[in-house]
Amino acid sequence: MKIAIHKSSWGFSQDWIAYCEKQKIPYKIVNCYSSDIIQQVSDCNVLLWHHHHTLAKDAVMGKPLLFALEQAGIKVFPDFNTGWHFDDKVGQKYLLEAIGAPIVTSWVFYDKAEALKWSNEATYPKVFKLRGGAGSSNVMLVKDQQQAGRLIKKAFGNGFASYNKWGDLKEQIRKFKSDKNSYIHLLKSIRRLFVSTEFAHTVGPQKGYVLFQKFIENNSFDIRVVVIGERAFAIKRMVRKDDFRASGSGFIKYDKKEIDEKCVSIAFEVTYKLKAQCVAYDFVFDQNKNPLIVEINYGFAHEAYFPCPGYWDNKLQWHEGSFNSAEWIVENVCNELH
Ligand SMILES: Nc1ncnc2c1ncn2[C@@H]1O[C@H](COP(=O)(O)OP(=O)(O)O)[C@@H](O)[C@H]1O
Ligand SMILES: [Mg+2]
């Protein structure tokens, strides 16, 4: 067995490499952007690649490369079941509805007149989302029909930039107020008001669809559960001040008693149905305290989970102690090959 790893300066890859070194697992570093990548992996039976939703190149060729190799019999991470719906909340709506997962009700329209008709009859507030984005960057509350109408017209007009420059600036100002060291990010965000991101240039505007969700009120936090194979871990993320959005807030609670285990149980159940290698779930709670999934995601910032005090196995037994979840990805792939 030999594992091919695409190395980045961020994400899972450096810990994958360290784990291979530690466990004496044969591996080689490959470059997924290279035209001869198929040749590069020809002496390997696994490819691990943490591709990212805001990298232009990854958006252009990440999924096609991984799925091509998978179809040819190479084990890949993320595989098709894990990755096809990555950064695509429209795809996730269909998938999670189709398997009967407990989700927040979503509406998607591909026709302006139909969307406007719906918006005239809807109650407010509702949540508007682009299909892509993370850290709450493309998620907003819609207060009334006028605002919904404006969003719908834009969705079927010029569309939305795939990078939300004003949203990002607001977020960087918020972070700067609590941590003056983040001034560099603030300066970069100001620059991006004038020079947009390579990603936004490459993928172009988001248009031709509009996605709304039912607003699940009175949630001062969301629960993020990550399932990797037969293990799960979780954090509680508090919402920003005067906001309903938790993702990206940076206010994290790690204590086990903060986590409703119903979320963990649902996360295992849905992951098995999805036959996915690794899924991060965001849950909010309805008025009866039932967890509802708002979105799923294979790629997460695993360092943020290092302070987790332990994990659950698939029998919901708790295992106390620290761990590095990136290692589990390699471990699971190796176990499947043996
Ligand atoms: N339908 C909803 N009702 C209430 N809160 C929501 C809803 N959808 C999202 N949120 C909140 O907004 C945050 C960001 O939404 P999410 O869909 O997870 O987008 P992102 O991909 O940016 O993380 C979530 O962490 C949650 O706190
Ligand atoms: Mg989220």
Short précis:
This protein has about 350 residues and is α+β, with helices and mostly antiparallel strands. The protein has helices at about 15-25, 35-40, 55-70, 80-85, 90-100, 110-120, 145-155, 165-180, 185-195, 200-205, 260-275, 325-335; strands at about 5, 25-30, 45-50, 75, 105-110, 125-130, 140, 210-215, 220-230, 230-240, 250-255, 280-285, 290-295, 310-315, 320.
Would you kindly provide a written description of the structure presented here, covering whatever features stand out?
This protein is of the alpha+beta class. The protein folds into three domains: 3-77, 3-Layer(aba) Sandwich (Rossmann fold); 105-214, Dna Ligase, domain 1, CATH 3.30.1490; 221-337, 2-Layer Sandwich (D-amino Acid Aminotransferase, Chain A, domain 1). Helices cover 37% and strands 21% of the residues. The protein is built from twelve helices and 15 strands. The chain has helices at residues 13-23, 37-40, 56-71, 80-83, 89-98, 112-121, 145-155, 165-178, 183-194, 198-203, 261-274, 325-337, and strands at 3-6, 27-30, 46-48, 75-77, 106-109, 126-129, 139-142, 210-214, 221-228, 231-238, 252-253, 278-285, 291-297, 310-313, 318-320. The strands form three sheets. Strands 9, 10, 11, 12, 13, 14 and 15 form a seven-stranded antiparallel β-sheet that branches. The longest helix has 16 residues, at 56-71. It is globular. The mean pLDDT is 96. Bound molecules: adenosine-5'-diphosphate and magnesium ion. Residues 247, 282, 295 line the site of magnesium ion.
